[in-house]
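Ticket #4471: structure export looks truncated?
Reporter: QA, pipeline team
Priority: medium

Steps to reproduce: submit the single chain below to the structure queue and open the exported record.
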Amino acid sequence: MAHGHPDHHHEQQHGHQQGPGHEQRGTDIDWSEMASLLETQAELTAPVYRQAMAWLAEEAAEPGLIVDAGSGPGVVSCLFAEAFPDARVLAVDGTGPLLERARARAARQGVADRFDTLAGELPAVLDELTYPADLLWAGRSLHHLADQRAALTAFAARLVPGGTLALLEGGLPSRFLPRDIGIGRPGLQARLDAVQEERFTRMRAELPGSVTEREDWPALLTSAGLRHTRTRSFLLDLPAPASDRARAHAAATLARLRDLVADGLGADDRATLGRLLDPADPESVHRRPDVFVLSAYTVYTAVRPA
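Actual output as written to the record:
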């Protein structure tokens, strides 16, 4: 599992931290190879995570243990260590090489004395926790688990009484370009969204033991024995003209999409993507003046009754 990835679901949205769009955590994805992309996306999205953490601090004021369930390479885990300087942070993920990167990041940022990792598949690996969590963060990791209701119940069981579960799911698809970009047929990103939704639906259906759930997250949190408290969305709004870093993110996301969903697009849209990704083309995202980054991230919180 990895988060802080390329916008899973919704090509960053449903995705790790979040990565670019509907990044499935299926067996067809090598998350170790994805590490650089996951880190770049999470670093670009850091302002959103900092806002979310400030908001979480209103409810979980002084957590002793923060668990990042589906941490990927640890960008968000280290942001938690920064935002809560008295807390211990545990990054949990099923991919060992990503956890190695998380430990290296924690060392570089001077928080290694309060930082640890746990390798294993969610939610079962949480049984290995020595102490229950005061704050458990699941950032676009839940939708990669076959039985989301059961997973939420397992998450809830690993909280201290009065502890908070913070769930990042849903939100809105990322946008990088206007509807009409002057080449190809208008509405390219909307069509990419539709193809990604179909791919995401297949990914969910193909998970062994997959259970279909209505994505009413507050109701699911309540069914897990928690008291749903708040919901808030946070915007990543990087307007045009985009920085080099934002352009690189847009290019990496669109390139990843092209690899993932090109078969579901028409020849005209594939040709348009080719031009958008060609650094030598004046219409590419590397050069055009109207590139921006706009995404919405929705966080749901719930508390285990005391």
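Status: closed, not a bug. The export was complete when the record was re-opened. Leaving a note from the reviewer for reference: The first strand starts at residue 65 and ends at 69.
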